[in-house]
Amino acid sequence: MKLPTHAECLTLLDQYRTPRHVVQHCLMVDRVALFLAKRLKKYGSTIDVETVDRAALLHDILRVVNFEGFDPKHFAQTISKEDLALWRAQKTLYSGVHHATAAKHELTKLGFKTLGTIVEAHRADAINGKVAKLDSLEKKVLYYSDKRVAHTEIVSVAQRFAEWGKRHEWNAQKLKEVAVEKKKVLELEQELMELSHMKPRGLKEAVLLH
Fold first, then answer.
1. How far apart are CA 115 and CA 103, in angstroms?
2. Domain range 6-209, its CATH number among 1.10.1200, 2.60.120, 1.10.3210, 1.10.260
3. Cα(4)–Cα(11) distance, integer angstroms
4. pLDDT tens digit string along 75-89?
5. Is 45 helix (H, G, I), strand (E, B) or coil?
6. Where would I find the H helices in 43-171?
7. For 43-56, how does the pLDDT look when each residue is reduced to its tens digit (9 = 90+)?
8. Helix, strand, or coil here: 154?
9. Least C-beta-crowded within 10 Å: which of 88, 126, 134, 201?
10. What residue ranges do the domains of the chain occupy?
Protein backbone atom coordinates (compact mmCIF):
# COMPACT_ATOMS: atom_id res chain seq x y z
CA MET A 1 0.00 0.00 0.00
CA LYS A 2 1.28 3.45 -0.92
CA LEU A 3 1.47 5.69 2.15
CA PRO A 4 2.59 9.24 2.87
CA THR A 5 5.20 9.56 5.60
CA HIS A 6 4.21 10.84 9.04
CA ALA A 7 5.83 14.18 8.17
CA GLU A 8 4.00 14.33 4.85
CA CYS A 9 0.69 13.86 6.67
CA LEU A 10 1.45 16.89 8.82
CA THR A 11 2.32 18.83 5.67
CA LEU A 12 -0.99 17.84 4.09
CA LEU A 13 -2.89 19.07 7.14
CA ASP A 14 -1.11 22.39 6.70
CA GLN A 15 -1.69 22.53 2.94
CA TYR A 16 -5.40 21.85 3.36
CA ARG A 17 -5.47 24.48 6.12
CA THR A 18 -7.16 22.07 8.50
CA PRO A 19 -8.19 24.22 11.51
CA ARG A 20 -5.78 24.13 14.42
CA HIS A 21 -8.27 22.64 16.90
CA VAL A 22 -9.09 19.87 14.41
CA VAL A 23 -5.38 19.11 13.96
CA GLN A 24 -5.03 18.84 17.74
CA HIS A 25 -7.91 16.35 17.76
CA CYS A 26 -6.24 14.33 14.99
CA LEU A 27 -2.98 14.23 16.95
CA MET A 28 -4.72 12.85 20.05
CA VAL A 29 -6.65 10.28 18.03
CA ASP A 30 -3.30 9.29 16.53
CA ARG A 31 -1.83 8.77 20.01
CA VAL A 32 -4.71 6.49 20.99
CA ALA A 33 -4.72 4.61 17.69
CA LEU A 34 -0.95 4.08 17.67
CA PHE A 35 -0.98 2.82 21.24
CA LEU A 36 -3.78 0.35 20.46
CA ALA A 37 -2.23 -0.80 17.18
CA LYS A 38 1.14 -1.48 18.81
CA ARG A 39 -0.49 -3.30 21.72
CA LEU A 40 -2.63 -5.41 19.40
CA LYS A 41 0.46 -6.35 17.43
CA LYS A 42 2.30 -7.18 20.66
CA TYR A 43 -0.42 -9.66 21.59
CA GLY A 44 -0.45 -11.39 18.22
CA SER A 45 -2.86 -9.49 15.98
CA THR A 46 -1.88 -8.77 12.40
CA ILE A 47 -2.12 -5.01 11.92
CA ASP A 48 -0.22 -2.39 9.91
CA VAL A 49 0.83 0.17 12.50
CA GLU A 50 2.08 2.70 9.94
CA THR A 51 -1.25 2.64 8.12
CA VAL A 52 -3.10 3.26 11.38
CA ASP A 53 -0.79 6.20 12.12
CA ARG A 54 -1.35 7.87 8.75
CA ALA A 55 -5.11 7.27 8.77
CA ALA A 56 -5.47 8.72 12.26
CA LEU A 57 -3.46 11.82 11.37
CA LEU A 58 -5.55 12.52 8.26
CA HIS A 59 -8.99 11.32 9.33
CA ASP A 60 -10.40 14.84 9.80
CA ILE A 61 -8.32 16.66 7.17
CA LEU A 62 -11.53 17.94 5.53
CA ARG A 63 -13.62 18.31 8.67
CA VAL A 64 -14.55 21.86 7.58
CA VAL A 65 -16.86 20.59 4.82
CA ASN A 66 -19.41 19.74 7.52
CA PHE A 67 -19.00 22.94 9.54
CA GLU A 68 -22.15 25.07 9.62
CA GLY A 69 -20.10 28.25 9.47
CA PHE A 70 -16.79 29.85 10.33
CA ASP A 71 -17.54 31.92 13.41
CA PRO A 72 -14.11 33.01 14.77
CA LYS A 73 -15.17 32.25 18.37
CA HIS A 74 -15.21 28.54 17.51
CA PHE A 75 -11.62 28.52 16.27
CA ALA A 76 -8.36 28.40 18.24
CA GLN A 77 -6.61 30.63 15.72
CA THR A 78 -6.86 33.84 13.78
CA ILE A 79 -8.68 33.03 10.56
CA SER A 80 -6.98 34.44 7.48
CA LYS A 81 -8.54 35.36 4.14
CA GLU A 82 -6.67 32.41 2.65
CA ASP A 83 -8.18 30.07 5.26
CA LEU A 84 -11.71 31.25 4.52
CA ALA A 85 -11.25 31.07 0.76
CA LEU A 86 -10.03 27.48 0.85
CA TRP A 87 -12.59 26.33 3.42
CA ARG A 88 -15.44 27.81 1.38
CA ALA A 89 -14.10 26.18 -1.76
CA GLN A 90 -13.90 22.83 0.05
CA LYS A 91 -17.48 23.19 1.34
CA THR A 92 -18.71 24.04 -2.15
CA LEU A 93 -16.86 21.14 -3.77
CA TYR A 94 -18.13 18.63 -1.20
CA SER A 95 -21.54 20.10 -0.45
CA GLY A 96 -23.72 17.46 1.21
CA VAL A 97 -20.82 15.00 1.46
CA HIS A 98 -19.60 13.56 4.78
CA HIS A 99 -16.13 14.86 5.62
CA ALA A 100 -14.77 11.32 5.86
CA THR A 101 -15.91 10.55 2.32
CA ALA A 102 -14.53 13.89 1.14
CA ALA A 103 -11.18 12.94 2.66
CA LYS A 104 -11.30 9.60 0.84
CA HIS A 105 -11.80 11.39 -2.48
CA GLU A 106 -8.93 13.80 -1.85
CA LEU A 107 -6.55 11.06 -0.74
CA THR A 108 -7.47 9.04 -3.81
CA LYS A 109 -6.57 12.03 -5.99
CA LEU A 110 -3.20 12.14 -4.24
CA GLY A 111 -2.58 8.46 -5.00
CA PHE A 112 -3.51 7.06 -1.58
CA LYS A 113 -6.72 5.22 -2.50
CA THR A 114 -6.50 2.41 0.07
CA LEU A 115 -5.61 4.84 2.84
CA GLY A 116 -8.60 6.95 1.83
CA THR A 117 -10.88 3.94 2.17
CA ILE A 118 -9.60 3.39 5.72
CA VAL A 119 -10.06 7.07 6.59
CA GLU A 120 -13.65 6.99 5.32
CA ALA A 121 -14.42 4.20 7.79
CA HIS A 122 -14.19 6.53 10.79
CA ARG A 123 -17.60 8.04 9.98
CA ALA A 124 -20.10 7.21 12.71
CA ASP A 125 -22.44 5.16 10.52
CA ALA A 126 -19.63 2.80 9.47
CA ILE A 127 -20.51 0.75 12.54
CA ASN A 128 -23.69 -0.18 10.63
CA GLY A 129 -21.85 -0.89 7.38
CA LYS A 130 -24.17 1.33 5.34
CA VAL A 131 -21.51 3.36 3.53
CA ALA A 132 -18.10 2.27 4.77
CA LYS A 133 -17.43 -1.07 6.41
CA LEU A 134 -15.25 -1.93 9.41
CA ASP A 135 -13.77 -4.93 7.63
CA SER A 136 -10.16 -4.63 8.79
CA LEU A 137 -8.41 -4.21 12.10
CA GLU A 138 -6.89 -0.93 10.90
CA LYS A 139 -10.37 0.48 10.26
CA LYS A 140 -11.67 -0.77 13.60
CA VAL A 141 -8.79 0.80 15.51
CA LEU A 142 -9.23 4.15 13.75
CA TYR A 143 -12.98 4.11 14.27
CA TYR A 144 -12.76 3.20 17.94
CA SER A 145 -9.93 5.62 18.70
CA ASP A 146 -11.92 8.51 17.24
CA LYS A 147 -14.89 7.53 19.39
CA ARG A 148 -12.68 7.73 22.49
CA VAL A 149 -11.47 11.30 21.87
CA ALA A 150 -13.68 14.35 22.40
CA HIS A 151 -11.75 17.31 21.03
CA THR A 152 -8.36 16.56 22.63
CA GLU A 153 -9.51 14.62 25.70
CA ILE A 154 -9.63 10.85 25.98
CA VAL A 155 -13.11 9.97 27.23
CA SER A 156 -15.32 6.90 27.54
CA VAL A 157 -17.64 5.82 24.74
CA ALA A 158 -20.58 6.91 26.89
CA GLN A 159 -19.06 10.37 27.38
CA ARG A 160 -18.37 10.70 23.65
CA PHE A 161 -21.97 9.90 22.76
CA ALA A 162 -23.17 12.33 25.43
CA GLU A 163 -20.96 15.02 23.92
CA TRP A 164 -22.51 14.40 20.49
CA GLY A 165 -25.95 14.64 22.02
CA LYS A 166 -25.21 18.10 23.37
CA ARG A 167 -24.17 19.30 19.91
CA HIS A 168 -27.14 17.90 18.00
CA GLU A 169 -30.90 18.11 18.27
CA TRP A 170 -31.94 14.54 17.47
CA ASN A 171 -35.53 13.50 16.88
CA ALA A 172 -36.98 10.31 18.36
CA GLN A 173 -36.02 8.17 15.34
CA LYS A 174 -32.45 9.45 15.34
CA LEU A 175 -32.16 8.81 19.07
CA LYS A 176 -33.12 5.17 18.46
CA GLU A 177 -30.51 4.89 15.71
CA VAL A 178 -27.85 6.45 17.93
CA ALA A 179 -28.70 4.00 20.73
CA VAL A 180 -28.14 1.09 18.33
CA GLU A 181 -24.84 2.62 17.15
CA LYS A 182 -23.69 3.05 20.74
CA LYS A 183 -24.43 -0.59 21.51
CA LYS A 184 -22.41 -1.69 18.49
CA VAL A 185 -19.51 0.60 19.41
CA LEU A 186 -19.44 -0.95 22.88
CA GLU A 187 -19.35 -4.39 21.25
CA LEU A 188 -16.41 -3.25 19.12
CA GLU A 189 -14.76 -1.92 22.26
CA GLN A 190 -15.08 -5.32 23.93
CA GLU A 191 -13.53 -7.00 20.87
CA LEU A 192 -10.53 -4.68 20.77
CA MET A 193 -9.99 -4.71 24.52
CA GLU A 194 -9.97 -8.51 24.60
CA LEU A 195 -7.47 -8.65 21.73
CA SER A 196 -5.23 -6.08 23.41
CA HIS A 197 -5.60 -7.50 26.95
CA MET A 198 -6.92 -4.23 28.35
CA LYS A 199 -9.95 -2.77 30.03
CA PRO A 200 -11.63 0.35 28.55
CA ARG A 201 -11.17 2.44 31.68
CA GLY A 202 -7.43 1.83 31.63
CA LEU A 203 -6.88 3.17 28.12
CA LYS A 204 -6.58 6.86 28.96
CA GLU A 205 -3.90 6.43 31.60
CA ALA A 206 -2.00 3.94 29.47
CA VAL A 207 -1.94 6.24 26.44
CA LEU A 208 -0.92 9.33 28.41
CA LEU A 209 1.88 7.44 30.16
CA HIS A 210 3.12 5.79 26.96
1. 10
2. 1.10.3210
3. 10
4. 989 999 999 999 999
5. coil
6. 49-58, 81-93, 99-109, 113-120, 137-147, 157-167
7. 999 999 999 999 99
8. strand
9. 201
10. 6-209
CA distance 26 to 57: 5
Judge whether 207 and 35 are in contact, CB under 8 Å.
yes
Distance, in Å, from the CA atom of 123 to the CA atom of 116, rounded to the nearest integer, reads: 12
Residues 6 or more apart whose Cβ sits within 8 Å of residue 74: none
pLDDT at position 175 over 80: no
What is the rounded CA–CA span in Å between residue 124 and residue 100? 10
pTM for the complete prediction? Answer: 0.95
Cα dihedral sign, 97-100-102-105: negative
Amino acid at 122: H
* Number of Cβ within a 10 Å radius of residue 180: 12
Q: Cβ–Cβ contacts within 10 Å for residue 62, how many?
A: 28
CA quadruple 167, 173, 177, 179: dihedral sign: positive
